[in-house]
Amino acid sequence: MIQNDNIIDGKSLSQVIKQEISEEVKKIVQSGHRAPHLAAILIGENPASQSYVKSKVRSCEQVGFRSTLIQKEADISEDELLELVDQLNKNEEIDGFIVQLPLPKHIDEMKVTMAIDPEKDVDGFHPVNVGKMSLGLDCFLPATPYGIIQMLDRYGVETSGKQCVIIGRSNIVGTPMSILMSRKMKTGNATVTLTHSRTQNMKEELLRADIIIAAIGYPNFVTADMVKEGAVIIDVGINRVEDAAAKRGYRLVGDVDFEACKNKCSLITPVPGGVGPMTVTSLLLNTLKARKF
Ligand code: L34
Q1: What phi and psi, each to the nearest 5 degrees, are found at residue 75?
Q2: Mutate to test the pocket of ligand 1, among 52, 54, 98, 258 (most ligand atoms within 8 A of CB)
Q3: Please, what are the domains in the chain?
Q4: I need a labelling partner for 268 at 20 to 30 A (CA). Which of 26, 107, 170, 260 fits?
Q5: Is 99 in the pocket of ligand 1 (CB under 6 A)?
Q6: Ligand 1 binding pocket includes 272 (Cβ within 6 Å)
């Protein structure tokens, strides 16, 4: 990657990886096979979910994948959704699929996740994939953590023996990230601290960190006084903050006070253009992996 500042450019890196994926797709198609095919189920009208799923579909087109978007009203019953999942499990034309979260309150997210065939679970959310990840077995890694690992790897961030402090213990980011960063492998071997809402002395914990991974969904939570000189900062937060001056009426801010922290750290991911695009690209990598012959 071309580097002329201390920004980890997730948008550019995702373009590079998409280019690599499209080369693979060309080879698949040239050898007479059909291209990988991703399906996405989108329930309801959540604007953020709509925008993320749209970006996933657009990215499929960019790399030559087939994609199918299934949109349903927010009042769909849990049984209907489970039926839809079952159809996708059985559809041999579809290699992998996702159910975009969050789901409406009357639907049990874990029940739906557990209904997905683990071999088509390109989000890596099914307990079988989470279990395999914990044991270091081959599996689908959840897209956001997978994207972060690739950013650290391709920007040459040394993680072995480093202090990594993660903020947030969600099933889709904080918890899997803590497992991956402590694994005995390249871009792993870190000493991991998983902090959360009950953590005492958050500032003290963060000041020890060589690598900070912020995933709490609280705008500008990490301020410059909480960051050690030279630390690497990965900002997973995508918070919509009202802004009358902005075109869409809001702007996106991360969990980190970017402007203040960027002068103190050695590397930092921006929001937007950091972890978000890498999440989408990692989903494509999982779908490529799911394509079986
Ligand atoms: N099932 N649900 C399922 N799988 C996922 O992997 C997700 N996630 C998270 C929410 N729910 C999910 C996503 O897709 C978050 N997420 C996601 C995907 C893409 C982006 C952000 C979050 C993204 O592209 N962000 C852009 C800005 C987008 C905008 O303008 O709103 C960025 O540059 O950060």
Answers
A1: -90, 10
A2: 52
A3: 32-117 (3.40.50.10860), 143-276 (3.40.50.720)
A4: 170
A5: yes
A6: yes
User: Distance between CA atoms of 270 and 275, rounded to whole angstroms?
Assistant: 8
- 116 Cβ inside 6 Å of ligand 1: no
**Catalytic site residue 56?**
yes
The pair of structure tokens assigned to 68 is 């199918």
Told to judge if 123 belongs to the known catalytic residues of this protein, a careful annotator would answer yes
The alpha carbon dihedral of 205, 211, 213, 219 has a sign of positive
Residue nearest to atom 6 of ligand 1 (CA): 143
**Tokens 């499990």, residue located:** 89
Residue 273 in contact with ligand 1 by CB distance below 6 A: yes
- pLDDT tens for 2-47 read 566 999 999 999 999 999 999 999 999 999 999 999 999 999 999 9
